[in-house]
Amino acid sequence: MSGAGRTDDGHGRAGRMLSGLAVAVGCVLFLGGFVWGALLYQPYTVPTDSMAPTIGRGDRVLAQRIDGGDVRRGDIVVFKDKVWGDSPMVKRVVGTGGDTVACCDGKGRLTVDGKPIEEPYLQATGPASPTAFSATVPEGQLFLLGDHRNDSVDSRGHLTDTSHGSVPRGAVKARVDATAWPVGGWGMMDRPESFAALPGGTSQPGPLPLVLTAVVVGAVLILGGAAYGPVARIVTPRRREEVPAHG
């Protein structure tokens, strides 16, 4: 019986060690994921319908802090430019320095350097813009439009400015990677395929999935490790105490 007791005690010690290790690793992943996310991402609330249906009024988005030089066509960015107002704005980049952005071609599509752009994310099914326009984007600048072209104050409204409606790359504060709220609309932002064939291509998604995975796995390890002791006491049968024989 003493051998069985030592075996049970050895299993118990191993279980406690593994549960402690799981909790320790879980804490590193959980807290590390939160810190990593806080350093890279910032939440924003979108105040208008100008990016509908991609992002609705009042939606909370997670935007990765990036340098303006990393912005590519098709990105949805958060920017602030004094010419446009005092509040951060959220728009989609459709043109970069040197591009000629125009609308519309014979099929009602936006064109970049004469190449038609398919935009399945637009709110309306009609022309890509209710008003015709053409602008050449200065070097180091970005041309920005909302996805709800009938209800968006964007580069089209600033065409008479010296920058021809564009904003400096340095005005960009972050790039939207995902919608976080409402929960039913949560999801990562797709990179539009129609911009991929243009020079520079599209940007790569940020590390948000890895951040979320670290947090979730960490939480599971913490809960699993902490639950080991109570669960082990419930499922492990107690050894019967031996009653010494008399006579």
How would you briefly describe this protein structure?
This protein has 247 residues and is of the alpha+beta class. The protein is built from two helices and twelve strands, in the order H-E-E-E-E-E-E-E-E-E-E-E-E-H. Mean pLDDT is 87; it is low at 1-7 and 239-243.
Describe the protein's architecture and organization:
It is a single chain. With 247 residues, the chain is α+β, with helices and mostly antiparallel strands. It contains two helices and twelve strands; from the N terminus they run H-E-E-E-E-E-E-E-E-E-E-E-E-H. It has helices spanning 2-40, 208-235, and strands at residues 41-45, 60-65, 76-79, 89-96, 100-103, 110-112, 115-117, 133-136, 141-145, 167-168, 172-181, 187-188. Helix 1 (2-40) packs antiparallel against helix 2 (208-235). The longest helix is centred in the N-terminal third of the chain and has 39 residues, at 2-40. The radius of gyration is 28 Å and the shape is elongated.
Order of helices and strands: HEEEEEEEEEEEEH
Decide which structural class fits the backbone.
Answer: alpha+beta
* C-alpha termini separation: 22 Å
Number of DSSP strands? Answer: 12
Fraction of residues in helix:
25-40%
- Number of H/I helices: 2
Shape call: elongated
Output the keywords.
EC 3.4.21.89, 2 helices, 12 strands, 247 residues, alpha+beta, four-stranded antiparallel sheet
